[in-house]
Write a structure and sequence with these properties.
Length: about 475
């Protein structure tokens, strides 16, 4: 007798303390988080086909663990669950209104970062353990919807300098990917939603810790389906919402509801087990009336499999970092500290913030591009029955995600960045001539996007075996 597909889901709260460093925006004036909009969550889904087990976890932070942190987090999850570390995927919603999890360019609130980050590994691992312990017979189905609250964000402005603003003429991926998992009684226990859009509605003037629109998206799905919702951010490198940078909480609620309503609509139509209508009894009335009922049939097998490999993406080379570049960052930091001590006007502090953060980002990119010829990245693909989940630790442009989906051998393929680390932007080759923020913020050469597509398709081919 074949092993039954099993699934379990769990969640924990990872909201940081008020007062923690809240630094994501170069244009901001504040330093510490001054309140909580909505709690931040960590959610985990465990699945098994009786032979292979996989855990998919996601949390409301700007990025997932990477480097040694990722190694230790997976090790801890393996210790608790027995699931192999390379069968664990950890993704981030990429909210830009969460806490700083690395030292920012200012000091206030930075003392709270390390204790908070050190607490995350065990909270993540504990959530994965709870999901794993809840493994129980389940059924799975999938569907796709469409929601046009996202848009291309590279608006032509000046030569080689598009601005980050809605560009309806640009490429966008409006697909809402949905996986629904039911228990043996047919009640939904988990709904996975895949959608591509930066959570950057709450921007520089927002002083609250928030999951941005993904928080409302999950709550909307859960209110309507009764299931726990996981949000897997898509290939959002050049995708924003149509409300981005408004700094209005009500806008993040509106966008989250719109996507959540579409996801719930799709989930409601998903059939996790095939059925047939059958007359189960007759009643004599004006005529003989047949009362029909849905008779559940045996569903298809739901194999679970996870594969991954290292992909060396080529670097967009530049010369060695100059002493002047290092000195400029130090000079800007000193000036910002002086202005804060002097309690300078907000606009002066905003400008000083912009200068020091841009210079710091420029220096970071310069070092990456000067010190190596390629960057090793972990690409991962997970099969859950007819659905494949592709994950890469970059911010891929939407065109990359759509090409992988269109060429995949699976009935449904959902592509995500921001998974198992994140190594900045991965633009398509044509974007380099256009310039813009994402091109400035990439360490990769123009051919890297094509390599990412090819390597992702290789992994998908392995999953079909």
């Amino acid at each position: 007798m074949r092993e039954r597909f099993r699934a379990g889901v769990a969640r924990c709260d990872i909201t940081p303390p008020v007062g923690i460093a809240h630094g994501t925006w170069s244009a901001q004036v504040h330093e510490r988080a001054e309140g909580i909009d909505l709690p931040l969550w960590c959610t985990a889904l465990a699945v098994s086909d009786g032979v292979n087990e996989v855990i998919v976890a996601e949390w409301d932070l700007v990025c997932p663990p990477d480097g040694e942190w990722l190694v230790q987090a997976r090790k801890r999850i393996t210790e608790l669950t027995g699931v192999s570390g390379n069968h664990v995927r950890i993704s981030a919603s990429h909210t830009h209104s969460g806490p700083s999890i690395e030292p920012p360019w200012f000091e206030a609130g930075a003392e709270m970062i390390d204790p908070y980050v050190r607490s995350l590994t065990d909270r993540l691992a504990g959530t994965c353990l709870e999901a794993h312990r809840k493994l129980a017979p389940a059924f799975l189905g999938w569907g796709k919807g469409d929601c046009a609250v996202n848009t291309n964000r590279r608006l032509p402005w000046q030569p080689k300098r598009p601005i980050l603003a809605p560009n309806p003429a640009g490429f966008a991926d409006h697909e809402v990917g949905v996986i629904r998992i039911d228990d043996e009684k047919g009640s939904p226990i988990a709904v996975v939603v895949n959608y591509a859009a930066h959570p950057t509605i709450l921007a520089w003037d927002n002083r609250l810790v928030s999951p941005d629109y993904p928080g409302t998206l999950r709550r909307t799905v859960e209110d309507l389906t009764g299931a726990t919702c996981l949000f897997l951010q898509g290939a959002a490198g050049n995708q924003n919402t149509i409300c981005d940078y408004s700094n209005k909480v009500q806008d993040s609620r509106w966008v989250g509801r719109r996507i959540g309503l579409e996801a719930a609509r799709v989930a409601d139509r998903v059939e996790t087990r095939p059925s047939r209508l059958e007359v189960v009894r007759t009643v004599e009335s004006s005529w003989t009336m047949g009362v029909a009922d849905s008779i559940l049939m045996e569903g298809p097998e739901i194999p679970v499999k996870c594969v991954g490999h290292q992909v060396d993406l080529p670097v967009w080379k530049r010369g060695p970092v100059r002493d002047e570049e290092v000195a400029e960052v130090k000079r800007f930091r000193i000036r910002l500290a002086e202005l804060r001590e002097q309690k300078a006007p907000a606009q002066e502090i905003r400008e000083a913030n912009r200068l020091v953060r841009r210079a710091s980002m420029d220096l970071m990119l310069a070092r990456k591009r000067a010190e190596t010829d390629c960057i090793p990245l972990e690409f991962q693909a997970i099969r859950i029955g007819p659905v494949a989940l592709v994950a890469m630790p970059v911010e891929p442009f939407a065109e990359i995600g759509v090409e992988i989906k269109s060429r995949s051998p699976f009935q449904a393929t959902f592509v995500s960045g921001y998974s198992n680390g994140v190594e900045l932007y991965l633009p398509v080759a044509g974007a380099y001539e256009e310039g813009g923020y994402e091109v400035w913020m990439t360490p990769f050469s123009p051919e890297a996007a094509g390599i990412a597509v090819t390597e992702s398709l290789k992994l998908l081919a392995q999953l079909t075996g």
